[in-house]
Amino acid sequence: MKILLISPKGTYLSRTKELNKFWSESDYTAEYRKFWSGVGIGLLIVGALTSPSYEVEFIDENIEEADFSKNYDIVGITGMTQQATRAYQIADKFRTKNIKVVIGGIHATLMPEEAKNYADSVVVGEAEYVWPQILKDFENKQLKPFYKNENLVDLRESPIPRLVRTTP
Fold this sequence. Notes:
Strand 3, helix 4 (81-95) and strand 4 (100-104) form a beta-alpha-beta unit. Helix 1 packs across helix 2 (27-35). This protein is of the alpha/beta class. The mean pLDDT is 85. The protein has a 6-stranded parallel sheet with strand order 2-1-3-4-5-6, with helices on both faces. The chain has one domain (2-11, 38-151): Cobalamin-binding domain (Rossmann fold, 3-Layer(aba) Sandwich). The protein has 7 helices and 6 strands; from the N terminus they run βαααββαβααβαβ. The radius of gyration is 16 Å and the shape is globular.
């Protein structure tokens, strides 16, 4: 099985034009913009939770754009609110190719019904305890609309994040 895990480029900072202009043009934010990346550790932990028998590819759109010509079995997208617009665009493109999409992250956790409009499944809360079940359900063609982590994640049990492409 081939899995894509993607962190979308942030496309939304504020609805205020002045703040967006300040962010994109100010000398004060120039240094920060060079290093801005949406990749959070959560996506890398999801990769580590994925069995080595799966081929896993990571994309941080701040470094490289998603390649929609590639075929995947399932796509996992995470994001904060400033990434939500782009996350939904990515999800729509993959879903038109009949590729299943799972969306998680802080925005999806706060707005799960909104996120569900763009995904086959939404992760509410942290993914550590639900990702293995998502993959199992996907393989059995029983992907649920929502997966909610009801427990606090013990970081001592969290695997070391993985940011390397793996091939079974």
